[in-house]
């Protein structure tokens, strides 16, 4: 099993660390899956973790100048590692003006993901900082636990408002109730609602817009032919939603290029989940190939 | 004592207080003929810092006549209350033109007056406690190794370590390279902690006089406090250190002020395993020669003396009475504190020790104390 990768471009480095930061805020530990052309940050849906799952897929070519990996076997050319994303995020945080960043799989006192950062210094030679992040190698028999989430079959998909606004609303609602009802329809309206014996509070958002791609796809049959005004609703744990909103690294807006959009899918009853999808279009840098989109899927199970 | 500080120096004083507040809960003020000295020591007595502002630093500096022959006034105040006066550095810089510090022993008040813009005067009356002299016994000349670097280089080096990290290990590698790495306690599972190591080339330092292979482990929090001060004042910082376990001395030198930070360092793992209970007062006797060597190698002696040069004999740091009892020192009990050493509860820092030279009339416990470490020639 071998892995080494190198980032030289500052914009790529910056982007990569933003993705890692976002993952770090969402998950304490996660799985890093490496394949020949992609890397994934995965938090699988475990009951112990409170039913939140994250799936983040990155094309290595969009970030790395060099990327070499050798999996356990030729027919299973993949590596699955368990790591604390906070560690990786911290290592990258102080590397923002680095000349190069190398990431390697090493075996020191234990298996480590070694991040070696070459920093400019006041003298002729550069400073070298190495971070040995302990990782656990996940055996092949457990690989099946980390499967790509299926294409969401949702009722409604909607852009989220500025997450800061949403956060301050949800923060106040948290004091009143344990669970929150999210309602949304296909004409850009969303309600955040709590209902208790004593009080019911609803915050209304409008003109949020619905992502256009939602209706193109054949799979999303539930959304088609749906009454534009009718609300789809999901009930989720308010703390989990808040944890997500509080941890937001990216500030989604739908207008600008190279920024993130957050989109909410109120899934239908079959899935029992609400999914928030962060996506970003990268600025077309010359060295980047193909469609450079980063998508982070965060799923929260409904039904508290 | 009466002194007046003007202009940018007010901010320098404020920054010094901020830096001292990282160390202890009490601020010791001592007006001397060489200037005003501010000191602090942490509760476990493993860190000591002193800032000496020379008379030139002040617009006016009057030490004041000694109230009783031969005795100069020293006091300590609560760090919290003194810090609150200088809490906001930006506003200090923007609004304060002049700062007046007055020590009124008769009224039992330490008065700090800030003369601000638009004729606003803020007067703070602080209660103080008379105290003995606080002085760590250390000598930079006895340290075999020294390093000098611009504060910025070191400040940029420590940002790579998490804020929660307590200790770093500094070591000298081949070719004059200096490395800093986070210290991981053995008890912790090695597979859980991220290890960060940073290498600095020799040419980033102004002076490197270290033996390759030497290394020391010290607390990062106090060091960070000093670095913040040094970086803001744009002063080079010198690190003097000796064998592991002996105190490391961090100094800043400027015509207007002298700063010393003395930090206990972790002793060698081998010597720890030889005498695992060698901290605190309740230790078991160990082979004498071994033990004495050990002592000499790790102590920061702290002395308190009621009289400045009042006794003919040099103040001798003495080893604490070996009485079973709590190992924690209580800073409030200066008087009875015959060298009860304290160590941070879970750390293996061999801290310190401080002897007490008692007044001749006072209860004399000194003869019962066993002198195990020679006095080092202090710098004060």
What does this protein look like?
The complex is a heterodimer of chains A (304) and B (380). Chain A has 304 residues and is of the alpha+beta class. Chain A contains five helices and 18 strands. Chain A has helices spanning 10-26, 85-93, 163-174, 213-216, 238-246; strands at 2-7, 30-34, 38-43, 52-59, 66-70, 79-83, 100-107, 111-119, 127-134, 136-137, 154-159, 179-184, 190-195, 200-205, 232-237, 260-267, 273-281, 293-301. Chain A has a nine-stranded antiparallel sheet. A five-stranded antiparallel sheet of chain A has the order 5-1-7-8-9. In chain A, helix 1 (10-26) runs antiparallel to helix 2 and helix 3 (163-174) runs antiparallel to helix 5. Chain B is of the alpha+beta class and 380 residues long. Chain B starts with a strand and ends in a 23-residue tail after the last strand. The model of chain B is unreliable at 271-301, 304-347 and 350-374 (pLDDT under 50). At the A-B interface, helix 2 and strand 9 of A face helix 4 and strand 15 of B.
Keywords, please?
heterodimer, A: 304 residues, alpha+beta, nine-stranded antiparallel sheet, five-stranded antiparallel sheet, 18 strands, 17% helix, B: 380 residues, ten-stranded antiparallel sheet, 33% strand
Question: Summarize this, please?
Answer:
The complex is a heterodimer of chains A (304) and B (380). Chain A has 304 residues and is an alpha+beta fold.
Topology at a glance:
The complex is a heterodimer of chains A (304) and B (380).
Chain A: E1 2-7, H1 10-26, E2 30-34, E3 38-43, E4 52-59, E5 66-70, E6 79-83, H2 85-93, E7 100-107, E8 111-119, E9 127-134, E10 136-137, E11 154-159, H3 163-174, E12 179-184, E13 190-195, E14 200-205, H4 213-216, E15 232-237, H5 238-246, E16 260-267, E17 273-281, E18 293-301
Antiparallel strand pairs in A: 1-5, 1-7, 2-3, 2-6, 3-4, 4-18, 6-10, 7-8, 8-9, 11-16, 12-13, 12-15, 13-14, 16-17, 17-18
Helix pairs in contact in A: 1-2, 3-5
Chain B: E1 2-6, H1 8-21, E2 26-32, E3 35-41, E4 47-53, E5 60-62, E6 75-78, H2 79-85, H3 89-95, E7 96-104, E8 109-116, E9 121-127, E10 129-130, E11 135-137, E12 145-150, H4 151-158, E13 167-172, E14 178-182, E15 195-200, E16 207-209, E17 215-219, H5 220-233, E18 236-241, E19 248-253, E20 257-263, H6 269-274, H7 288-298, E21 300-305, E22 352-357
Parallel strand pairs in B: 21-22
Antiparallel strand pairs in B: 1-5, 1-7, 2-3, 2-6, 3-4, 4-20, 6-10, 7-8, 8-9, 11-21, 12-16, 12-18, 13-14, 13-17, 14-15, 18-19, 19-20
Helix pairs in contact in B: 1-2, 1-3, 1-5, 4-5
Subcellular location (chain A): Nucleus
Main location (chain A): nucleus
Protein name (chain A): Checkpoint protein
């Amino acid at each position: 099993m071998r892995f080494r990768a190198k980032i030289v471009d500052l914009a790529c480095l910056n982007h990569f660390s933003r993705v890692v930061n976002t993952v770090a805020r969402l998950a304490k530990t996660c799985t890093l899956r490496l394949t020949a052309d992609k890397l994934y940050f995965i938090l699988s849906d475990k009951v112990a973790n409170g039913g939140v799952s994250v799936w983040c897929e990155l094309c290595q070519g969009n970030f790395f100048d060099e990327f070499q990996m050798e999996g356990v076997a030729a027919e299973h050319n993949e590596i699955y590692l368990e790591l604390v994303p906070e560690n990786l995020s911290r290592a990258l945080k102080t590397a923002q003006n680095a000349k190069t960043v190398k990431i390697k799989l090493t075996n020191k006192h234990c298996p480590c993901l070694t991040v070696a950062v070459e920093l400019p210094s006041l003298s002729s030679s550069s400073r070298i900082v190495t971070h040995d992040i302990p990782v656990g190698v996940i055996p092949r028999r457990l690989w099946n636990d980390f499967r790509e989430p299926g294409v969401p079959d949702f009722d409604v998909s909607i852009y989220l408002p500025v997450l800061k606004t949403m956060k301050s609303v949800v923060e106040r609602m948290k004091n009143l109730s344990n669970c929150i009802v999210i309602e949304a329809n296909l004409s850009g309206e969303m309600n955040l609602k709590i209902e208790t014996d004593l009080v019911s509070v609803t915050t209304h958002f409008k003109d949020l817009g619905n992502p256009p791609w939602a209706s193109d796809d054949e799979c999303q049959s539930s959304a088609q032919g749906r009454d534009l005004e009718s609300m789809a609703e999901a009930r989720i744990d308010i703390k989990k939603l808040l944890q997500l909103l509080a941890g937001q690294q990216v500030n989604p807006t739908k207008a600008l290029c190279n920024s993130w959009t957050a989109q909410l899918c109120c899934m239908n009853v079959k899935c029992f989940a609400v999914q928030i999808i962060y996506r970003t279009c990268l600025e077309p840098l010359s060295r980047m190939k193909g469609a450079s989109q980063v998508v982070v899927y965060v799923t929260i199970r409904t039904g508290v | 004592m009466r002194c007046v500080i003007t202009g940018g120096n007010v901010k320098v004083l404020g920054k010094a207080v901020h830096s001292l507040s990282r160390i202890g809960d009490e601020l010791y003020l001592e007006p001397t003929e060489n200037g005003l000295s501010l000191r602090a020591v942490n509760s476990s007595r493993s860190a000591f810092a002193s800032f000496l502002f020379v008379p030139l630093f002040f617009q006016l500096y009057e030490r004041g006549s000694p109230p009783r022959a031969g005795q100069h006034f020293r006091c300590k105040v609560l760090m919290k209350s003194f810090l609150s006066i200088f809490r906001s550095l930006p506003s200090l810089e923007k609004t304060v033109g002049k700062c007046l510090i007055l020590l009124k022993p008769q009224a039992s008040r330490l008065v700090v007056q800030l003369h601000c813009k638009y004729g606003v005067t803020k007067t703070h009356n602080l209660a103080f406690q008379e105290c003995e002299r606080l002085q760590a016994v250390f000598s930079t000349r006895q340290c075999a190794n020294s390093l000098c670097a611009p504060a910025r280089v070191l400040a940029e080096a420590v940002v790579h370590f998490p804020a929660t990290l307590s200790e770093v290990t500094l070591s000298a590698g081949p070719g004059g390279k200096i490395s800093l790495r986070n210290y991981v306690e053995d008890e912790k599972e090695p597979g859980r902690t991220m290890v960060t190591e940073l290498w600095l080339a020799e040419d980033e330092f102004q002076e490197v006089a270290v033996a390759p292979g030497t290394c020391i482990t010290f607390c990062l929090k106090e060091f960070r406090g000093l670095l913040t001060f040094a970086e803001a004042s744009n002063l080079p910082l010198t690190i003097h250190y000796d064998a592991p376990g002996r105190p490391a001395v961090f100094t800043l030198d400027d015509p207007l002020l002298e700063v010393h930070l003395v930090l206990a360092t972790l002793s060698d793992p081998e010597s720890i395993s030889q005498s695992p209970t060698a901290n605190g007062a309740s230790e078991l006797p160990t082979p004498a020669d071994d033990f004495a060597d050990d002592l000499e190698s790790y102590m920061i002696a702290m002395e308190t003396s009621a009289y400045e040069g009042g006794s003919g004999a040099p103040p001798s740091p003495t080893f604490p009475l070996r009485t079973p009892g709590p190992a924690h020192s209580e800073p409030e009990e200066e008087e009875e504190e015959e060298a009860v050493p304290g160590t941070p509860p879970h750390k293996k820092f061999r801290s310190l020790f401080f002897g007490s030279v008692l007044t001749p009339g006072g209860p004399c416990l000194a003869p019962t104390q066993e002198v195990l470490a020679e006095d080092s020639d202090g710098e004060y």
